[in-house]
Amino acid sequence: MWGLTGGIATGKSTVSHWLSLAGLKIIDADVIARQVVAPGTPGLQQICATFGENFRRADGSLDRKKLGQLVFSRPEELRRLEAITTPLIQAEIQRQLALYRTQNATGIVIDAPTFYEVGYLVDLVDHVMVVATSAAIQRQRLMARNGLSEAAAQARMDQQWPIAKKVALADVVIDNAGTIAQTRQQVVEWLDTTNLGSSAAVLAEELD
Ligand SMILES: CC(C)(COP(=O)(O)OP(=O)(O)OC[C@H]1O[C@@H](n2cnc3c(N)ncnc32)[C@H](O)[C@@H]1O)[C@@H](O)C(=O)NCCC(=O)NCCS
Ligand SMILES: Nc1ncnc2c1ncn2[C@@H]1O[C@H](COP(=O)(O)OP(=O)(O)OP(=O)(O)O)[C@@H](O)[C@H]1O
């Protein structure tokens, strides 16, 4: 079993998409983090009880933008949010893992941005892949993708371990500082050495 991580906006989702195309089974912590706070869930109820009803939008969904603006600029608020979300995310990851085990599945990947930071995930996997860029490229891509100022992007990066610390612990590092095609080539080469999935579908996909 593998862990897949990186820093915010270093290209984890880009790589995990290719691993999925190759046939690996992805347990995506970002997707789960959304499911556990979907409208009507106890998770959303707890968030609104803690942070206020003004974080619930008119359609009943969580105002993610507003909550992000609060927690990514105030670490103590992020800790309060994580106290609600982390146990819910952990339980769902364990549930999905148990299901895969009953199927004797192989090629399972746990994809989580805070893979190292949360602590409990490291013991579940045999190896970890880290998708990395320099901090400068990471900041630029985050600013462009989320429409953030340099200071706001840096504040989000500061809520995670520096990417260099994750690279130092990784079993495999995918360097995503270059072009998408260069990154895909590294993923293809890795797939071809592991037998966990087939690189054919990955290579067949048109790149933008
Ligand atoms: C604050 C929230 C509502 C902002 O939502 P938004 O839709 O704007 O961002 P999204 O969830 O897509 O996350 C974007 C990126 O932010 C970073 N991030 C998210 N949560 C955290 C966190 N607790 N610590 C550090 N970085 C984080 C990750 O790199 C993630 O990929 C949301 O990120 C959240 O609920 N976070 C707490 C849950 C959590 O810890 N998620 C991480 C998955 S293990
Ligand atoms: N090699 C690349 N060249 C240019 N842009 C890239 C490259 N790789 C990814 N991007 C872009 O950078 C942004 C971040 O990539 P991606 O969403 O895959 O990162 P992520 O690590 O999953 O982020 P998060 O932790 O926030 O979910 C996206 O807008 C993506 O299109």
Automatic annotation (TrEMBL):
<keyword id="KW-0418">Kinase</keyword>
<comment type="function">
    <text>Catalyzes the phosphorylation of the 3'-hydroxyl group of dephosphocoenzyme A to form coenzyme A.</text>
</comment>
<feature type="binding site">
    <location>
        <begin position="9"/>
        <end position="14"/>
    </location>
    <ligand>
        <name>ATP</name>
    </ligand>
</feature>
<keyword id="KW-0173">Coenzyme A biosynthesis</keyword>
<dbReference type="GO" id="GO:0015937">
    <property type="term" value="P:coenzyme A biosynthetic process"/>
</dbReference>
<keyword id="KW-0963">Cytoplasm</keyword>
<dbReference type="InterPro" id="IPR027417">
    <property type="entry name" value="P-loop_NTPase"/>
</dbReference>
<comment type="similarity">
    <text>Belongs to the CoaE family.</text>
</comment>
<keyword id="KW-0808">Transferase</keyword>
<keyword id="KW-0547">Nucleotide-binding</keyword>
<dbReference type="InterPro" id="IPR001977">
    <property type="entry name" value="Depp_CoAkinase"/>
</dbReference>
<dbReference type="Pfam" id="PF01121">
    <property type="entry name" value="CoaE"/>
</dbReference>
<comment type="pathway">
    <text>Cofactor biosynthesis; coenzyme A biosynthesis; CoA from (R)-pantothenate: step 5/5.</text>
</comment>
<keyword id="KW-0067">ATP-binding</keyword>
<dbReference type="GO" id="GO:0005524">
    <property type="term" value="F:ATP binding"/>
</dbReference>
<protein>
    <recommendedName>
        <fullName>Dephospho-CoA kinase</fullName>
        <ecNumber>2.7.1.24</ecNumber>
    </recommendedName>
</protein>
<dbReference type="GO" id="GO:0004140">
    <property type="term" value="F:dephospho-CoA kinase activity"/>
</dbReference>
<dbReference type="GO" id="GO:0005737">
    <property type="term" value="C:cytoplasm"/>
</dbReference>
